[in-house]
Amino acid sequence: MTPEEKLYNCYDSIKGKLNGFTPKIALILGSGLGALADEIDVKFTIDYSEIDGFPQSTVQGHKGRFVFGYMGDVPVVIMQGRVHYYEGYSMHDTVLPVRLMRLMGAEILFLTNAAGGISFGAGEFMLITDQISTFSPSPLIGRNFDKFGTRFPDMSEIYNKELNSAVRNAARELGIDLKEGVYVQTTGPNFESPAEVKMFKILGADAVGMSTACEAIVANHAGMKICGISCIANLACGLSDNPLTHAEVMEAADNSAPVFKKLIKGAVEAIARIS
Ligand code: HPA
């Protein structure tokens, strides 16, 4: 089966369950941030394990299901748990869920993640204004998905300016300090070395993580509007004296979760008002 056939196979296996529900906004929740899905008016859920051929998330703290429902009046699909390249999936599989949500009808992709801070510290939130994906393979390598987009997509405005201003306004109204910066994706699963973090800083990155940029590439390819927020879970390696652990990342994300939930809810409502 080609990656494209695999995608349509997944879609065929869930189309019936959607019962005509068309999400406007697709959200991907990062490590420790999945609790947001409990806040929405849930209509139904689909576990990843129910979807024929769908890659299963193996990361602790990632639940592994699509949640369908309403945030305010906005029909949304939320990925509670994402698929990471470092789990051993191909890049095509890693980004399959984004394309699947596009097939479901989502026009906007709202990305979230827990990230290491290069310019910012634990507990801060960063609106992603641009990205560096050079350190992980492009998800568009291989035969082009012509029905989704062009072979050589433009990348001059991956993160949509209007969505960004809506997110900024929502943060301001809620009194939440929202930083801004560039996200760099590594393949993981190892954290970076201090020398790599220094390099990323020189290259202009403000936060580092193991997801998101590849998802933004396929969403951009597929004509979706994109915005994203990083929840800074720790200072990137070498910027503090402590060695990093996944437990620390999860704990920091847990601590940020209540404010994060408010921010995302406000941001989604603000985006809905302008789109
Ligand atoms: N590096 C990469 N990914 C991460 C980090 C980090 O420091 N923290 C959370 N995700």
CATH architecture descriptor: 3-Layer(aba) Sandwich
Mean pLDDT: 93
Look at the helices and sheets and give the structural class: alpha/beta
Order of helices and strands: HEEEEHEEHEHEHEH
Care to count the β-strands?
Answer: 9
What percentage of amino acids are in beta strands?
15-25%
Through-space gap between termini: 37 Å
Radius of gyration, in angstroms, nearest whole number:
17 Å
CATH topology: Rossmann fold
Can you put this structure into words, describing what you see?
There is one protein chain. This protein has 275 residues and is an alpha/beta fold. It has a single domain (3-274), classed as Rossmann fold (3-Layer(aba) Sandwich). The protein is built from six helices and nine strands. It has helices at residues 3-18, 91-103, 161-174, 194-203, 213-221, 246-274; strands at 25-29, 41-47, 65-71, 74-80, 108-117, 125-132, 178-185, 207-209, 225-235. Strands 5-8-7-6-9 form a five-stranded mixed barrel. Strand 7 (178-185), helix 4 and strand 8 (207-209) form a beta-alpha-beta unit. The chain is globular. The mean pLDDT is 93. Residues 114-116, 191-192, 208-210, 233-234, 236, 244, 249 line the site of hypoxanthine.
